Every structure is written in C-alpha cells, then in structure tokens.
Amino acid sequence: MPEPTARRPISRRRLLGTAGATGAAGLAAGATGGTLLGTAHAGSGTTPLTSIGTTTHPFHGTHQPGITSPLQAHGHLLAYDLVPGTDRRGAAALLRRWSQLAAALMAGEAADVDGTHIALDAGPSSLTVTFGFGAALFDTLGLTDARPTALAPLPEFSADALDPDRSGGELWIQIGADDALVAVSALRLLHRAAAGSAVQRWQMTGFNRTPGATARPMSQRNLMGQIDGTNNPRPGDEDYDRRIFVPAQGDPPWMAGGSYAVVRRIRMLLDPWEELAQEEQERVIGRRKSDGAPLGGDSETTPVDLAALDGAGRPVIPVNAHVRVSSPETNDGAAMLRRPFSYHDGLLPDGAPDAGLLFVCWQADPLRGFVPVQRKLDRGDALSPFLRHEASALFAVPGGAARGGYVGQALLEG
C-alpha cells in the first residue's frame, strides 16, 4: 500500500479543483504527522486545510485500503445482510456502487457525491473504506464452492459471551478517518447506497488518538492506559506480506492480494483494572505503562526477552503475562496485524463502563494467525479476567479493486 507523502496545505476550493481535474490518482497525499501547517493567507479570505485534512490514501491497488494504512482517529464497523431475493447480479451492483462511492470520497470528491453536506468543508482526512464478505454470503448467493477454507467458523473460546445480534454478517464495511464528520459522511452515504439491496445487521463506533496529539509519533494507547500494538508485524519484516496477505497464487484465486479480518468486540472491566496498582498492571501485561518497554527493557522497541530472570531467578516477564502468552515465539510463529479502535458506549445497568476495544486483526489465514494465539490466551493469560468477548465475526477481504472495477469482482463475475 503506497504511503502518504507530504504536501503543502491547500484550500477546499483548490482541493476539489484538483480532484475534478485529475481524479483519484492525481491527488497527492498529505502528511500524517498532524502538525498544523499554516494560517489564513493574507487577503485570500480562505483558511488552508491542515495536514490532517489533506491526507489521502488510494482506493485502487493490489490490496484494499484500511489494512496497512496508519490508524485513524475515528472508525465505524458495519455489517450488512442482503435483502431476501438479492442475487449475485444484485450483489455485484451493490459492490460496484459502494466501490465507486468509496473511491470518490477517499479522493476528496465528497462535494460531487454527497447530498448530506456533513463533510462539506473538510478534505479527505485519511479516509479509508474496506469491504469484506462473511461466510453466509456464499450460501445466499449460491457460491459455496468459492468459499475459502480459511473462512471456516472460528472455534468457541471459554471466555466468549457472544451476542449473535452483534456478530457475523454477510457483508462488512470498515470506515476510518481522522475527522469524525468525514467518517460519518462516508457511513451515511454507503448506507444510503445499500437501500433495496442490503440491511444493516450491526454497527460499532470507535476512536483512537488523533495524529499530532503527542509530541512525537508513538503507538496508540488503549483504555487500560497501555501502549497497544508494539509487537505488530512491521513492513520491513521479511515475512510481512506473507503473514498478512493472501499470495497472488492464493486459494481460492479470487482472494489474491486479499486478507482475513477477525473482528471482536472486547469489553474491558475498567473498574477492577483501575483498582490494581500500576506495578500489578505492568506484570499482567509484561510492559511498563510509562513508555511501553517490556519489563527489563529500555524502550518500547526493545525486543521482548522471555528468558530474562531477576535476582531471585524468577522470570522478569511473568509466565502468564499477556506479552509472553501472545508472543509469536510462544505460538510457533503465529502472528497477526492488530488494527483496533477503542470504544466507550456509556454505562451498563450496573454502573460499569460499556467500554473496551473493537479488536480488528488481519492475517493471510486466521487458522494460522488469530486462532492459535487466542487459544493460548484462553488457557492462561493474566489479562483475561479483565476482558469480556461480547461479539465476533470473520470476513474474507478481497484484494483491491482495479480502476474501472469493484471490490469482489473476481468472485461475483467469475
């Protein structure tokens, strides 16, 4: 996925003029640092957009956006089921509408397609839209022979307390943006475009720290106050693509360049967690809260030393610490790219916060990524008593759309 590059601030008029003249490919990408780059031009009567507003990601390409793209500040996850009677041709028409709309919105062409005017004054703001297919879709469309083996149902885990009304789904959309109104505008337009073809099954809304809110770029913190995502696969890793994306000769062929998204709504028991002393919290996770360094390490990026012992001969990182139990080294190399959003939906009837993590992870095969790691966590993770898994879904996310095409075209027209 091409990385965004810096450009000078531009006005809304200039942004739309460029979009109209060059289309999605012609829009240069903005900086991701989030620094305010300018003030109003003297005498111009316009205020330039900041780097956050001008950042854009391409919709078309080998892979879909929103997988390896930098985390955005605002996110929406939505699942849909096809309206009874919608056939393969109708599903293809819906995916074509959705793809064309997503490409225009991500290119900053909202004014050309948006009748809501929700995001009228904003740039693309790092908007990404990602589409996926649930296992049930293949039954509905008579495509069971094309259903990937990797889309088999996830196993049950002992800590699961899943709500079926907030799980599963035939179609999935992930929306991310660094501006809340841009994200909501995309949500509304995509929902309207589904009318007559699909009905919403569930929706979840989350957030992350806004780019530029910290003095230096750093990993996100979750609602437990912990730095999150340090052990993610990195683009420079030799096996990065192999872990995350289905190869070009993948099985089935229509998933070439695609990935699999596991989505879990994980409520955090924040009240009992916050009653723990910081030292206890750090031993549960296996990392310092202040800077994310592994216990015994110097910084967030210090490699985790699972063999380190303290003066009494005990493991520096406890045997049930989350970082040890989830480490690829203790799971035969199993790994996934975690790209979550936090959520806070108010209070439950007992007064506890309905808050936690909208966990989204990406891998070439969930049976070799998420499943073995979650099984290990299910058996003896010190963090598990503070978590409740309340919803779950698995989606096949095809490769990116070619220009003039749409996501899932190889499946629906194959």
Describe the structure.
Mean pLDDT is 88; it is low at 1-47. The protein is built from 12 helices and 11 strands. The chain is globular. Helix content is 23%, strand content 19%.
Which tags fit this structure?
disordered N terminus, 414 residues, single chain, 5-stranded antiparallel β-sheet, 4-stranded antiparallel β-sheet
Give the helices and strands, then pairings.
Elements: H1 12-22, H2 51-54, E1 74-82, H3 88-106, H4 110-113, E2 128-133, H5 135-140, E3 171-177, H6 180-193, E4 198-207, E5 220-221, E6 227-228, H7 240-244, E7 259-268, H8 270-275, H9 278-285, H10 322-325, E8 337-338, E9 341-347, E10 353-363, H11 370-380, E11 387-397, H12 409-412
Antiparallel strand pairs: 1-3, 1-4, 2-3, 5-6, 7-10, 7-11, 8-10, 9-10
Helix pairs in contact: 3-6
Fraction in beta strands:
15-25%
Low-confidence stretches: 1-47
H-E string: HHEHHEHEHEEEHEHHHEEEHEH
What is the average of the pLDDT values? 88
Give me the number of helical elements. 12
- Indicate the percent of residues in helices: 10-25%
Give the structural class. alpha+beta
Largest sheet geometry: 5 strands, antiparallel
Question: What form results from the Cα inertia axes?
Answer: globular
The first-to-last residue Cα distance is 25 Å
Task: Supply Rg.
Answer: 22 Å
Strand runs, count: 11
